[in-house]
Every structure is written in structure tokens, then in C-alpha cells.
Amino acid sequence: MMKNFKKTAYPYVLLAGLPLLILGGCASQETTSAVEETATPAMEITQPISEVQDPIALQESHATEFDTENTESTPSVSDDIQPAAAPASMPQEQLIGFEFDQAEVDEQYHELLRQHAQYLSANKDLTLKVSGHTDSFGPKEYNQYLSKKRAEEVAKLLVEYGAPDERVIVKGSADDEPLVSATNQRELRRVELDYQDQRLVSYE
User: Fold this and answer.
1) Cα–Cα distance between 130 and 143 in angstroms, integer?
2) Closest to 95 in 3D by CA, of 12, 178, 190
3) Reduced to 3 states, what is the DSSP secondary structure of residue 95?
4) Tens digits of per-residue pLDDT, 15-46?
5) Range 59-67, long-range pairs (CB < 8 A, 24+ positions)
6) Which CATH number goes with the domain that contains 186?
7) What DSSP designation does 13 have?
8) What is the bridge-based pairing of β-strands 168-172 and 126-133?
9) In the chain, how many domains are there?
């Protein structure tokens, strides 16, 4: 009896389960189709891969354009800064000559005095001793006056060309200190420029 039941019931079980299998297969297909339809738009490429810009390269490109614009529109700070002038070197010539019984400085010495003024101004530890001299002709008292007058005229021009007045020292020596290398009286009529380190030497 049990054997007959199994044989007769088995086909009915298969028939009852068949709709479930069919529905399961359809659902699987519908799910797969739904997934494919959903994923399709995301997989679409509107332009070739070679034409897609690299985000990092694009950012660097924009940064370069920004820097270029700033460089063109913003003036360089160094353009407003003038280079500092080099300190003037000490002029080699240190003698100013004069005509007989004259204290006026000849025009030919003006450029030389301008160079001395620049050098003294650039070297703040120096003072400039301006010593006037005369030849041996004439009274001692007058030669003293004339030698100092010559020194004062030279000092006046130095200050006009920018030398600090407080570092220009004037002295008249008359004919007391003749020039050793002089070969005639004309060479004795002069003003000598002598630089001194004011930290080591003081004048009364």
C-alpha cells in the first residue's frame, strides 16, 4: 500500500513544484535584467579614454595659469629696490695746488674734491685733515693767514659735495712744512688731504 502511494504521489509533487521552479527562474532573469539596466548608464563612456583629462594634471594646469597671471599683473618687489652704490675708493691724488698769493680753488680740482667727499662720507670712521701751505716768500703772519684760508676754501667745497662737516679738520701751516719732493716754489703753494682714523687720532 505504501509503495503504491509513493509511486502515485511523486508525479503530483513534481507537478506542484513546477510552477515554483518557473517563477524562480523568471525572478532570476528579471533581477539580472534589472541589475544590467541599472548598471548600464554608469558604464557608458561619452568620450574616448585618451581624451579624459587627468584631474591632477588639470589642477596643475590651472595652478600654472594662476601663477602666470600673478606674475604678469604683480610687479616684482625687486624692481622697486635700487642696488646700493659701491663705496667710493680713496682718490690717489691728495694735493691741491694754488697760484701765487691766491686762495681760490682752481676748477680743475673740483672733480677730485667731489671724489674725496664721497669717500669720506662712505667711511664713517675716518676724518679728513685739510692742511694749507705756502711758499717761503712773505711775512710769517701773512703766510699763516693765507695757508689757513686755502685750507678753508678746500674744506668748503668738500662739504658742498657731501662731506660731513664735523669730520673735516682745517689747519694752516704757513711754510713750516715744506714738501720734500718739491722742486720749485710753486709746488709749495698747496693744500694736503690726509685721512685719519678718528677712533685713534683726535685733534685739538
Assistant:
1) 16
2) 190
3) strand
4) 555 555 555 554 445 444 444 454 444 444 44
5) none
6) 3.30.1330.60
7) H
8) parallel
9) 1
Domain of 138 in residue numbering reads as 95-197
Q: Does residue 130 fall inside a structural domain?
A: yes
Does residue 28 fall inside a structural domain?
A: no
For residue 129, is pLDDT > 90? yes
Whose cell is 691724488? That residue is 93
- Whether the CB-CB separation of 127 and 168 falls below 8 Å is answered with yes
End-to-end CA distance of the chain: 153
Cell of 96: 691741491
Interatomic CA distance for residues 85 and 175, integer angstroms: 40
**Average pLDDT of the residues of the chain:** 74
User: Does residue 26 lie in a domain region?
Assistant: no
Q: In what order do the strands lie in the sheet with 190-197?
A: 95-97, 190-197, 126-133, 168-172
Asked if the structure places residue 84 within a domain, the reply is no
